Fold:
Amino acid sequence: MVKVAIITGSSRGIGREIAKTLARKGITVVANYNKSEEAAKELKQELEEEGIKIDIIKADVSKREDAKKLVEFTLNKYGKVDILINNAGISEYKLFTDETDEDWNKIINTNLYSAFAMSQEVIPNMVHNKSGCIINMSSAWGVVGGSLEVIYSVSKAGLDGLTKALAKELGPSNIRVNSIAPGMIYTKMNEKFSKEELKEIEEEIPLGKIGKPSDIAKCIEWLLEDEYTTGQVISINGGWIIT
Ligand code: NAP
Structure:
């Protein structure tokens, strides 16, 4: 049976690479975007040129009604959700004392509440099917904390808590829940760093390079094949952060 995957925030960066990887493996992909409609259309076209069809659905997953709409679309069209990848995320780079309530709500809702809402929407179907795989895109900063990225770090640590607790609750229903915690990956999210800053970071990484979205997509492929890993936070960071 062909598996069905929803990938939030897959118009760009890591999510886009995951969408391409899963679609090329024959998985039915429902890709989600919020603001980057053109990028999502390009992704759809790129895959269509390879003879692969995907759906691209606009939804702001920080909002319950949009999360619901995204899952309802998938269930109405395909009848099930086997894989949920909670990848949508935003970052900030600010002194903690400059952060506002608005920053808090925006980052927590986009990075953490979205995973709560999306998971709640798909879980009844996964429980019914006694099968499912949920992957939350966390961050190294969720594990060790990042200076000037305090709210972001909180949101990712929260995601890891969600992963661990939900894995225990859903294990008996044969649903696995894991986090992936990337270190530094080349995407638009890191455009805030200058070339010099990126070079300095590279020098701190034992493997001597910043990661690529495909490094994360490879781990997702493995997690989807696996049948015995749940409740884990899997760090992929070139050895930059070793706990
Ligand atoms: P990116 O290139 O900035 O892409 C972010 C994606 O999230 C975009 O597709 C964006 O879609 C989507 N998104 C943002 N807000 C959304 C919302 N409210 N609803 C739906 N989609 C939304 O970032 P990235 O580097 O690929 O990051 C992907 C994930 O990896 C994030 O959770 C991030 O925290 C995590 N991560 C990244 C790194 C890194 O070094 N790059 C490191 C650790 C963790 P639209 O543009 O269509 O709005």
User: Anything to note?
Assistant: The chain is about 50% helix and 15% strand. Residues 8-15, 32-36, 60-62, 87-91, 110, 137, 139, 182, 184-185, 187-190 surround NAP (CB under 6 Å). The first strand starts at residue 4 and ends at 7.
